[in-house]
Structure formats: C-alpha cells, structure tokens
Amino acid sequence: MTTSLKSQLGKQVVLALGGGAARGFAHIGVIRGLQEQGIEVSAVAGCSIGSVVGGVLAAGVLDDYEEAVRGLSRRDLLAMMDVSLPRGGLFTGEKMARFVHRFIGDQLIEDLELPYRAVAVDLDTGAEFWLERGSLLTAMRASSAIPGVFRPILVEQRWLGDGGLACPLPLEAAADLSDLPVVAVDLNAIESDHPAGPLPAADLETRAPASPGLVRALGAGLAIVCNHLTKAHVACNPPALLLQPKLAKQGLFDVSAVAEVIELGHEVVTEVADRLARDT
Measured between alpha carbons, how far is 119 from 106 in angstroms, rounded to an integer? Predict the structure, then answer.
C-alpha cells in the first residue's frame, strides 16, 4: 500500500515557520505544497519572516499577498528599506509594515481565522515571548525586528526584537497551540559535512575569494547562528515533519529571486511526498 504525506501526518497540521529574512518566501511554497497534498493548516506559529507569512495565512489573505510579492521587483523591495540611523537600527521597517498592512489591515490576533502566535525576544532580559493577542501587524514587526537592522518594537512596556535570537524555529510555540502534528520549516539548514576541527591547509595556488562585504557577512553570520540554535531546538522538540528547503545559495537579504524561493519551498514538500510513495 502506498503511503502518502497526508496518511502519515493526517488531514490537519500545525505549522512552525522559521526565520530567515528573504528566504521566508519559501514558506509560501511549503504551504501550497501541503495544500496540494490535501493537508490543511489549522494553526501557525511564526518567527521573524515566518510570523509574517504565518500571519497573512491566518488572516486569510495569503493568495493576495503571494500575488503581490511575486510582482515585486528587486527595486521595489529595496525601496522598502527606509534608512533610520542612528535610532535603534539601520531601517525603521515602516515601509515594509505599510506594504503588509495593505493585506491585513488593523486585524487583531484574537480575531484571525486560525490560531496564531509570533515569537519575539525581550531585548532587556533575553526572555522569549509569544505574541498571541492585540495587533497582528505589531506582532509581526516585533518578531521580525533583527537587532541593528530594524528598530525594536515597544509592546506592553517591553522593547522586543527578532524571535530568532532565542528560537529561530518556533517548535514549542507551535506544539503548545494544538495537539495536531507539527510541520516545521527551517530556512537556515547548512549543507556541509565538514566536522568541527582544525582549519585545513589552504591551497595557495588558488585565488583567494573576494571579501563577502557587509550585507553578505551579516546574512551569513545570522544564518549560521540560526542553524546551530535550530539544531538544538529540534533535538529537544522534534516535529512530526521537518522541512528544509535548499536555500543555502539564497542570501538572507537577497531580494532578487522571490518566485524561485517560493518554488524551492514547494519542491521540498513534493520531494518528501514522492520519497514516501517510493519507499512503500
């Protein structure tokens, strides 16, 4: 008898959508892939960009949001980066917030179509907080406020920042929402089999690579930290299904390939479903 993804997971799941900046458009592809497999998302927890995609899904406006982001050019996306020095971050995040507001309006989390949580971190104490009431847009902004990049967000007298500082993949927040199986989407998997150890000798006959530059170095650094944190969380709280789209070549701040990133999210679901069918 052939095993399907739906028969393995059931008809309904909870999503745990991880952080990863521009890589987050892959979440849209994952959701579409699950829908094609006949699997319904019944609740969602999100961190950083995962809180944004999860929020538009919970608000019932994912179709409109996907159509809009697919139509954005690199120039459009860069135009949303509103410089803010020196007030808490390089960018205010106001233009991005206005873009998302076009779809979700002033919705409250408690009025959404699906149970929803956004994960953020208290920048004073380091405590992880689950935002599950009040303004959906504020929760998204707090969960996505990468320190030094976007201004922190004041919520209930606390300055909150990106949830990825503590929990890049919100497994605990998702599992606590429901007893349904958790499908987790990790955007920061690193494809490397090199063990920890001494730096190998360099081939001095090859040309040294170019300096990564500020943006690339920052993105790579964040992805590496998130990768190691995610491994620890998965070891302690393994989900029913862990999906890791092949995004290693996509920079966290590379906004030039929205459609491609969405497709990579869709592909990982298809690959898992096909592998299940082959192995049974």
Answer: 19
What local confidence, expressed as pLDDT, does residue 254 receive? 76
Per-residue pLDDT tens digits for 163-209:
999 999 999 999 999 999 999 999 998 876 667 777 777 766 677 77
- Quick one: angle between helices 62-70 and 49-58, nearest 10? 130
Under 8 Å between Cβ of 82 and 92: yes
pLDDT for res 269: 97
Active-site residue flag, 162: yes
Buried b (16+ CB within 10 A) or exposed e, 101-125: eebbeebebeebebbbbbbbbbbee
Closest among 17, 14, 61 to 163, alpha carbons compared: 17
Distance of CA 274 to the CA centre of its chain: 24
Rounded CA-CA distance 52/237 in Å is 23
**Set 48, 51, 143, 144: catalytic member:** 48
For 45-96, what is each residue's pLDDT tens digit? 999 999 999 999 999 999 999 999 998 877 777 777 767 665 667 778 888 9
CA nearest 4: which of 43, 33, 28? 33
What 3-state DSSP class applies to 194? coil
Query: Percentage of the chain with pLDDT > 90?
Result: 65
What is the torsional sign of CA 32, 74, 146, 264?
Answer: positive
pLDDT of residue 56: 98
Taken as a whole, the chain contains a residue count of 280
Beta-carbon contacts of 71 under 8 Å, excluding residues fewer than 6 positions away, are none
What is the predicted pLDDT for the residue at 215? 65
Peptide bond into 239 cis (omega under 30): no
From 122, 162, 186, 254, active-site residue:
162
